[in-house]
Amino acid sequence: MTSEIRKKMGVLGGTFDPVHYGHLRAAEEVLEALGLDGILFIPAASPPHKSQAGIEDFEHRCEMLKLAVADQPQFEVSDLERRLPGKSYTAVTLRKLQEVLAEGTELFFLVGMDAFLELHTWWHYRELFELSNLVVLRRPGHDEEWIPVFLREHVSPLYAWQAESGAFVHPRMLPVFVVRNTYLGISSTRIRWLAAHGKSIRYLVPHEVLRYIAGKRLYQSSSIHRVR
Ligand code: ATP
Ligand code: MG
To answer: 224: pLDDT confidence band, cut at 50, 70 and 90?
Structure first.
């Protein structure tokens, strides 16, 4: 991993089943807006919130991610969660990252609005606000006005908006940044549905990912008709 020398590292975890332009564009905009040195894409080996049965193999998801980020030297794919035993818990992953990255590396955990508003259901979720800066990505259908409500109810009433940093800040916990990323109503669920129905997914995913999906005939069986 070339990340050893980096100082501000973004982390985008997800199932990436498959990766799409919603993930990639949001990551690019966060990289620029917060002046990060790089972004690590970490596919979940065994996502706690999703039934394992319906998810594409880790190798395929990881391969598609690698193809998708190949032309952006500041993006990297990590198979860390496959190497960790058991379910893929973000708190464990972030702790592990702090061990393996160069000392002094500051972590920025990117999370879409939909996932952010469900963070309180994640294992040891409070710890996330101590281990890493958080960056909330806007996503159509999920109102940003819920961010302070969520923080107050589930994390701490001491989080307060600080306009100059574009973040909710706290006296002891780490900031929660809100980036004004482009709204892109793209989801992997929709892509799987389109592929399963023989419809085009062009311009929703990078061309290399499109070719990989077609070549391996992914998402074509009826087991893909699931919604999550
Ligand atoms: P699925 O429909 O299978 O849940 P997804 O499109 O939500 O797939 P995930 O792999 O679940 O993709 O998402 C990983 C992370 O990226 C999550 O934090 C999610 O909120 C965020 N994300 C996904 N799509 C977008 C998007 N279009 N805009 C902003 N954030 C997104
Ligand atoms: Mg999702």
So the answer is: very low
Tell me which residues have their CB closer than 6 angstroms to ligand 1: 14-17, 22-23, 26, 111-112, 114-115, 137, 139, 184, 186-189, 228
Instruction: With both helix axes pointing from N to C terminus, report the angle between 207-216 and 58-69 in degrees, rounded to the nearest 10.
Output: 150
Which ligand is nearest the CA of 190, by number? 1
Whether residue 209 contacts residue 195, with contact meaning beta carbons closer than 8 Å, is answered with no
CA distance 8 to 13: 16
pTM of the shown model: 0.93
**pLDDT at residue 168 greater than cutoff 90:** yes
Residue 71 φ then ψ, to 5°: -95, 10
Q: Which residues of 8-30 are buried (b: 16+ CB within 10 A; e: fewer)?
A: ebbbbbbbbbbbbbbbbebbbbb
- Measured at the CA of 207, the angle between CA 205 and CA 211, to 5 degrees, comes to 105
DSSP state of 73: T
CA distance 138 to 119: 15
What secondary structure letter does DSSP report for 37?
Answer: S
- For 139-162, the pLDDT digits (tens) are 999 999 999 999 999 999 999 999
Residue 47 Cα, ligand 2 centroid: separation in angstroms?
11
- Contact between 94 and 132 under an 8 Å Cβ cutoff? The reply is yes
